[in-house]
Amino acid sequence: MTSEQNNTFDLSASFKAYDVRGIVGETITAEIVRAVGAAFVDTLGLAGQTVLVGGDMRPSSPEFIKAFADGAARRGADVQLLDLISTDELYYACGALNAAGATFTASHNPAQYNGIKMAKAGAQPISSETGLKEIQALAEQYLNEGAIPEGGTPGTIAVRDVLKDYSAYLRQLVDLSGSRPLKVVVDAGNGMAGLTTPAVLGDALLPALPFEIVPLYFELDGSFPNHPANPLEPENLRDLQAAVVEHGADIGLAFDGDADRCFVVDEKGQPVSPSAITGMVARREIARAKAAGEEAPVIIHNLLTSKAVPELIEEDGGRPVRTRVGHSFIKAVMAEEGAVFGGEHSAHFYFRDFWNADTGMLAAMHVLAALGEQDGPLSELGRQYEPYVSSGEINSEIEDKAGAIERVRADFEGEDIEIDHMDGSTFSAKDGSWWFNLRPSNTEPFLRLNAEAKDAETMHAVRDRVLAIVRA
């Protein structure tokens, strides 16, 4: 983005805490991307090394891939173009090939956006604390100087397809060949799951699995003509829910635009919460790790997942570790703890066997395996993992967020509760009957409430009491 007064570039509008996101033609352009590609190589010292570059189905992605590759090659990196990829395909490639890489995606954001997710070799995330600020500063310098520096030997640009290797690797982690036959509706939302689902779960590249895949919106279209590729919003699940019931399917899967998150609905078309999916996958990963000799496998969960998650982990002989919300925190704790698996309430799922990175497809495969190895419907299986009643995330537009939290604290003063401040404020009844968390948004005037209780009546009472105070 340029300033008219002094014609200097300031990229702070598009460089976020964990990635780059901007409006195409305004805060993200081919000129900016070329400079970022050069700065990526120089900041991470990648001259003479392989750099992987791919992107999603957004109309601007091909031009941006080319520009980034050009900037990176000018500074001496040997670029391999992965072309159309999901975000977890980038993580696979960075891990399996031990190379740094970047993918162009704005995830679930509308069509006018694009962005860059970057990773170091081994799929280590790059955030503002681990190199993103330095990449931004150097890119701004190159843009303001009007040229990427010459010198050194330019790198090469070649093409590499990783889809088949990615698919085979996931199938090696979860063997689905022995599953009972399942009918699976998949809503790709016109995003990258339209490419990865036939490769991983279908027979596009590998032998057929015992699944009948019913495709919804598999056409890659970055204008998102059917609905936004954001399954976190309930209205974006409606087509999937209707299709599951209409086709008499066993399960429905919905992916976001870059296919790193996966949401699940049961055979009745009812959503299975990401907390229940976390519990279901945790149970499988604990059993596998214990069979391989680990005494108390570590499972990460953020503080907004259901209380059922840590209870189940302990019951199965694992060790739960609670973290703040956000993938950079989860990935860091995954590495520190040697955790086998991690789950978030937002349907991001992280795996040690996937270089501690998040992958919606691998989580979906675990759910298919859990469903396919027993005879009952998903609604019954899921109920085992959802013993409590949750409010979901409720936003209140409040300017004085700290004042609202203080009013809630004052109202509950003297009651038999505990309060912790790991991420926002979590209020918990000491008898275990309910808890709620209030978190201020860092970017919007929102105070976010998540509440959970042993039954619907208690949850509604707690939820309504807190909202009345917050919105007073």
Describe the structure.
The chain has 14 helices and 23 strands. Helix 6 links the parallel strand 8 and strand 9. Helix 1 crosses helix 2. The longest helix has 18 residues. The radius of gyration is 23 Å and the shape is globular. Its cofactor is Mg(2+).
Q: What descriptive keywords fit this protein?
A:
alpha/beta, Alpha-D-Glucose-1,6-Bisphosphate, Chain A, domain 3, TATA-Binding Protein, six-stranded antiparallel beta sheet
Count, helices = 14
* Helical content class: 25-40%
CATH superfamily of the domain at 20-161: Alpha-D-Glucose-1,6-Bisphosphate, subunit A, domain 3
Q: Are there runs of 5+ residues with pLDDT below 50, and where?
A: 2-6
- Annotated CATH architecture of the domain at 20-161: 3-Layer(aba) Sandwich
Sheet/helix structural class: alpha/beta
Overall outline: globular
Largest sheet: 7 strands, mixed
Mean pLDDT value: 96
Reported by name, the CATH topology of the domain at 20-161 is Alpha-D-Glucose-1,6-Bisphosphate, Chain A, domain 3
User: Strand share of the residues?
Assistant: 15-25%
Question: What's the count of strands?
Answer: 23
Head-to-tail CA distance between termini: 40 Å
Short structural description:
One of its GO terms (molecular function) is metal ion binding. Belongs to the phosphohexose mutase family. This protein is α/β, with parallel strands linked by helices and 472 residues long.
